[in-house]
Each structure stands twice: as C-alpha cells, then as structure tokens.
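hiii so um. not sure if this is the right channel but i have a protein structure encoded as tokens and i wanna go backwards to a sequence. like what aa goes where. can anyone help
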C-alpha cells in the first residue's frame, strides 16, 4: 500500500484528503505545519507528499527544499489556493502543482500519475 503524507494548515482540507485518498487505497498520514511534516516525513516514510504552499511558520516551499535535501526521489505535489505561485522558480522543484479545489479528481489523477498507477 502506497503511503501519502498530507501537509496542510487547514483541518478541513486535511480531513477531506484523508477520506478521499484512503478510499483510493492509500495509507494517509496528516501534518498541520512544516515542522510536523518534516518529523513525519522521517518516521512515516511516505511514497508521496501533498504540500500546502501557504502555512504559518515554515511555508511549503521551505518544506519542499528540506524534503529534497532528505530524499530527492519522493514525489512532492504542491497545493495552493493561489495560482500565481507558479511564477516562483522555487516551486519548480516540485513534481506537480495544483490549485486547490473542492473537486479532488485532479488531485487523485495527478497522484496516480506520480506514483505510476494507471
């Protein structure tokens, strides 16, 4: 079973993704901030990370950089409510970038692609 670490400061988003991704057959772990994400990245050893860009404290781009230092091969999917972050070259280190939506079909499709599932 593939493991996904969901990092988002909004509890409702974390829970939505937990439910939706669990139904897809993934083992899901949640983190509400960057520090928690990095700790769980070490202990949970996810196959993929979904990462909110805008969070209090350490933002998603900083977390992305630290994840890349620890394990550059784990796919990281950046998520944000704001599409203009695509202009920030630091986001290019991610494997994919999605603007958040209540419709999670793009999220699921992108995760399947990144994990090599049909």
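sure thing!! here u go:
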């Amino acid at each position: 079973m593939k493991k996904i670490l969901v990092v988002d400061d909004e509890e409702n988003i974390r829970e939505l993704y937990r439910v939706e991704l669990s139904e897809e057959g993934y083992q899901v772990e949640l983190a509400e901030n960057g520090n928690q994400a990095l700790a769980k990245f070490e202990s949970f050893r996810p196959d993929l990370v979904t990462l909110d860009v805008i969070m209090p404290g350490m933002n998603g781009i900083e977390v992305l950089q630290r994840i890349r230092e620890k394990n550059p091969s784990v796919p990281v999917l950046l998520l944000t409510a704001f599409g203009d972050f695509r202009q920030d070259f630091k986001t290019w280190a991610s494997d994919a970038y999605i603007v958040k939506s209540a419709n999670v079909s793009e999220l699921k499709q992108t995760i399947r692609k990144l994990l090599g599932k049909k």
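oh and The beta strands are 3-7, 27-31, 48-52, 76-80, 96-99.
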